[in-house]
Every structure is written in structure tokens, then in C-alpha cells.
Design goal:
Elements (H helix, E strand, L loop, with lengths): L1 H14 L12 E2 L16 E2 L3 E6 L14 H7 L7 E3 L5 E3 L2 E6 L5 E6 L13 H12 L18 E6 L4 E6 L6 H4 L22 E7 L3 E6 L13 E6 L3 H9 L5 E2 L4 H4 L6 E7 L2 E7 L9 H10 L2 H9 L3 E3 L24 H10 L7 E7 L3 H14 L5 E7 L1 H10 L5 E7 L6 H4 L15 H12 L3 H17 L3 E14 L2 E2 L15 E3 L2
Parallel strand pairs: 3-12, 17-18, 17-19
Antiparallel strand pairs: 1-14, 2-22, 4-5, 6-7, 7-9, 8-9, 10-11, 11-12, 13-20, 14-20, 15-19, 15-20, 16-20, 21-22
Helix pairs in contact: 1-10, 7-9, 8-10, 13-14
Length: 523
């Protein structure tokens, strides 16, 4: 497979001509040949009932939402769990388990009123004790602390969570935080339940049925769901495949109804009975460099590679022209915080790249390993293009494919790598996109150290003035780009194959697969 893809990429480079699609940030049907002949089919009335099978290319790293790390796990668990608030398809925070909320004028207190009649999937009503427990667990405020729970650092600003009465919870902060609400999307779970790892219980539109590692997770309609009219489906199965190619074979055989994250080559080979939909992933794809190891502990080397990468060519070759060039770690969806000026900071310049390499002491180039999770063909294909481009400056990149679980343990947690090509999923708040670059951040897998960045981060975190916050966030993005912490490539487009029998598939500005809106079309 690797050899075949390299051949294809070399062929494209030789031709230097690529057929491009026009695209926008909205969801669109981009498949011309496989669009149903009946143009009115997309407006067919939704029906209730039936089931769907969704293809995914990685196993879940936990059924407990507070222990999940992988974005691919969170996008599945989105259907089972909810927070006090949740994001809608337009990126707005809307009430979920809470019916309404109030924020004090000084930003120090958040008060939530619970929605009437919300039940957990086991039939028990949601109480304020459950809310207090869930928030404290996510914030690492319980004793003893479960070492497997991924403590949300943004919640460390919480000093107290109290049940005011049977319907009201008050969250008191140690300092004002204008972005805290985004983090209160953390899952609400039962306080007296200890089987989340095997039989998860939430409040979402679907409830857990079964999980078979490396095979599937099955969920069924929550008949007590508080939102009127959804979900439409009776059952959803997320079926796991080893990689995108294996999942596409399942799609071609008709055993998968929805398959997200198709490659451009797969999109061009869509089987009959499916149509293609596309929308921005709100994903930061890049070649992320370990700033703590040779040769990438030298910023001049990092800058040289940044000039040697033709980002638009990658988008053209790997994504069929669908995708937006980026120059920063902020998500373009956070428009007022995003520093668009950085998109062209490292314009493709081979001669400048060569000069910087010589200045750094590598006039003849060097060899390094780029580690890529094998289950994401999109990132594998991107790495292959990068390998060919770097040859032009005498740098040899050798691709090492590893399983996703190994990537999480070796690269992300262990920081045992030189470079990696992956995508960082959209976060719930703009500050989160920058948080990982603090010198002492647990998730700073790039080993970036910069006292000036740490100082500005603190200023941005503490200010309640929105204009000041925007300025600080843009300053931090500029530092990251000037230091060439990573080679930012694109915000890619997600290509999804959807059965012509289905409607309602919806793209979100965060990394989710919302099955509550999907339905079988009526006649």
C-alpha cells in the first residue's frame, strides 16, 4: 500500500497538474457522479426507526468519558454523554442537562438550573449530587483522585461546586474565567455508579448496548431523551476497521452505511448507492516536531523545513484541492482569535530552506524519522508528499507506521519520536488550542519551551477584557509560528460517504459524529 501511494504521488509531482474542486466552509454534496438521480431525494421526509452502521478506524481508548483521550473516542461517546451545556451544529453553546444558566457580572460564579425530567440511561433521575460529582471528578477535586481520569486543567479555576437546592448548582471560581462555560460540556455521570468502564451510563440520545474491542460499539435509542423529535434511529453501530482502506472495502461491500474521513482517491471510487458530503474538519493537520531532540531542537532547522514544504501542493495532492492552508495552531473556526496573517509566513522557498540548513550546520541535509499512525491514511498520504518535497533540500525523511495505541503511548505520552504527521482536533475553547505549548503542560508532546510564551499565556488566561484576550492569543500564535514549533499544513476537509437512503448527516465545528440527526428517508 505504501509503495503504491508513493508511486501515485510521484506521478502527480511529475505531471504538475491537478484537477481542483472549489470548496467552502459549509457542508456540501461534492459527489457529481454518485449523486442520486432524483434531485428531490435529499428533501425526503425523515422516518423513525431502523439502524445504521458507521465505519471508524480506531478502537476506543475508554468507555468512561472522563478517561478518554483520543478524539476518535470522544466523537463516538458524544452520542451517549452530555454536559450541563453542549455545542450545536453551528458551534453555539446551548443548554443540555441544564435548562438555563447565569454568570455573575464579575465572572466569579456560574449558576445552573437543571432541566426537568432528565434521566440517566439506567432510568434514574439526574440530581444535583450527580452534577457536583461529575464536575469535581473532571476537575480532579475528588478524594481519592482516580489516576486514570483525564483532569481538565481549565477547571482548576473552580474553588467550589455546591448544590444550592434540588434543581440548582453553583460553581464558584478562584478567579474570573470568560471561557469556563465551554469546559462545562464535560460529561454528567451518576455519582453512585462504578461501571462506566464496561457499561457506560449517560443522558445522551443513545444508550450503550455492547462493546467488543477492535470490532464494534452498539448503542440504541434513548426513549426518555428530553429533546423532542430525536433521535430518529433505533440503533447505531460503530464498526471498527484497522485502517481507512479496510473500512472502504466494508463500504464497497455494503456493510457500512456511513464512512467519514475518506481519502480523495477513495472519494473518486465511491460505490453506487452512496453520495459524498464534505465539510471543514476544524482540524490542525501538521508535521509536529519534537523540539527537545536533535535536529529539531535547533529552531533554524525547523524554519528550513517550514520553507521547504509546499502546503497547497499537499492539499491538492492529498485532498483534491479541498482544504485551507494554515500557519498557526489556532482553529480557523475561532475567527476573531485566528491570526490569518501567519498563513503566508513560510511561503514555499527552496533556496531559502537550503540556506537556512547550511546556516544550521547541515549543508548536505540529514535523515530523520516521521512517525505516522497507520490507521489514518490521510496523514500517511500527507507524510508521503512531505518525504518527496524534502528531498529537494537534501533531507531524507523515513516514514515509520505504527498502530494508534502505540502512537498514543510512544509519541503523545512518551514523547519518543522525532517528527509525526497527525491532526489536532478542534477544542472546546480557543485557549485550549494554545494551552499545550506551555513549558510545563502535561500534553506538550512537542517539548516546546518558551518563557515569553508562558508569560503571555498567563496574561491571556487571566484577563476578562475580550480585546486584550484576542491580542494575547494572536501574540502567542505569532511566537509559535516564528519559532517554527511545528509545520502547520492545513485545516482539511472531511469527506464522508453516506448511503443514499439516509439523510440528516451533519458536520459540527468540533470533532463529533452526531447520530441523533441521521434518519432513513421516506418514500
Amino acid at each position: 500500500m505504501l509503495k503504491r501511494n508513493v508511486t501515485k504521488i510521484l506521478f502527480l509531482i511529475a505531471l504538475l497538474t491537478i484537477a481542483l474542486y472549489g470548496c467552502s466552509g459549509n457542508k456540501e454534496n461534492t459527489n457529481e457522479e454518485n449523486t442520486p438521480a432524483d434531485e428531490n431525494q435529499s428533501s425526503a421526509e425523515p422516518t423513525y426507526g431502523g439502524s445504521v452502521t458507521v465505519g471508524i478506524t480506531q478502537d476506543l481508548d475508554s468507555l468512561d468519558p472522563h478517561k478518554a483521550v483520543a478524539a476518535g473516542t470522544k466523537e463516538v461517546l458524544f452520542n451517549i454523554f452530555e454536559g450541563l451545556v453542549k455545542f450545536d451544529k453551528d458551534g453555539n453553546l446551548v443548554p443540555a442537562v441544564a435548562e438555563r444558566y447565569e454568570i455573575s457580572t464579575d465572572g466569579m460564579e456560574y449558576t445552573f438550573t437543571l432541566r426537568d425530567g432528565v434521566k440517566f440511561h439506567n432510568g434514574n433521575p439526574v440530581t444535583t449530587d450527580d452534577i457536583v460529582y461529575s464536575i469535581k471528578r473532571s476537575a480532579g477535586m475528588l478524594t481519592p483522585v482516580d489516576p486514570l481520569v483525564v483532569v481538565e486543567s481549565a477547571l482548576s479555576v473552580i474553588s467550589e461546586v455546591t448544590a444550592v437546592d434540588e434543581k440548582t448548582v453553583k460553581i464558584t471560581l478562584s478567579k474570573a474565567d470568560t471561557e469556563l462555560l465551554s469546559y462545562l460540556t464535560c460529561a454528567i455521570i451518576p455519582a453512585d455508579y462504578d461501571a462506566l468502564d464496561t457499561k457506560p451510563v449517560g443522558t445522551g440520545p443513545f444508550q450503550f448496548v455492547s462493546y467488543t474491542p477492535l470490532e464494534s460499539i452498539v448503542m440504541e435509542k434513548n426513549e426518555d431523551y428530553y429533546v423532542e423529535g430525536v433521535p430518529y434511529l433505533d440503533q447505531v453501530t460503530f464498526k471498527m476497521s484497522a485502517n481507512t482502506d479496510a473500512a472502504f472495502l466494508e463500504l464497497s461491500a455494503g456493510s457500512i452505511d456511513i464512512l467519514p474521513y475518506l481519502t480523495d482517491a477513495q472519494a473518486a471510487q465511491m460505490p453506487t448507492g452512496y453520495h459524498l458530503e464534505a465539510g471543514s474538519m476544524n482540524l490542525i493537520q501538521g508535521m509536529f516536531l519534537n523540539n527537545g531532540v536533535e535536529p529539531f531542537n535547533n529552531p533554524t532547522v525547523r524554519k528550513a523545513l517550514s520553507y521547504a514544504i509546499d502546503r497547497q501542493a499537499i492539499i491538492d495532492m492529498v485532498g483534491g484541492g479541498r482544504g485551507d492552508v494554515i500557519g498557526t495552531n489556532m482553529f480557523p473556526g475561532f475567527k476573531k482569535y485566528y491570526n490569518a496573517d501567519l498563513d503566508t509566513y513560510y511561503n514555499y522557498d527552496i533556496e531559502k530552506a537550503k540556506a537556512l540548513l547550511a546556516e544550521a550546520g547541515y549543508p548536505d541535509g540529514f535523515t530523520f524519522t516521521v512517525t505516522v499512525p497507520s490507521n489514518y491514511q490521510f496523514h500517511v498520504d500527507t507524510a508521503q508528499v512531505i518525504v518527496e518535497q524534502l528531498k529537494q533540500i537534501g533531507v531524507t525523511a523515513e516514514i515509520q507506521l505504527i498502530e494508534w495505541a502505540s502512537w498514543l503511548s510512544d509519541v503523545y505520552a512518551g514523547r519518543n519520536y522525532q517528527a509525526t504527521v497527525v491532526g489536532l482536533a478542534a477544542e472546546v475553547a480557543p485557549r485550549k488550542a494554545l494551552e499545550r505549548f506551555q513549558s510545563d503542560a502535561d500534553n506538550n508532546f512537542l517539548n516546546y519551551k518558551n518563557e515569553e510564551f508562558d508569560h503571555i499565556y498567563g496574561l491571556g488566561e487571566n484577563t476578562t477584557d475580550e480585546n486584550e484576550k484576542i491580542d494575547y492569543y494572536k501574540q502567542m500564535q505569532t511566537l509559535l509560528t516564528e519559532d517554527a514549533v511545528a509545520i502547520y499544513i492545513q485545516d482539511p476537509y472531511q469527506l464522508t460517504a453516506v448511503s443514499d437512503k439516509l439523510g440528516g448527516y451533519t458536520y459540527y465545528p468540533i470533532y463529533v459524529q452526531d447520530m441523533s440527526l441521521v434518519y432513513h428517508k421516506g418514500e
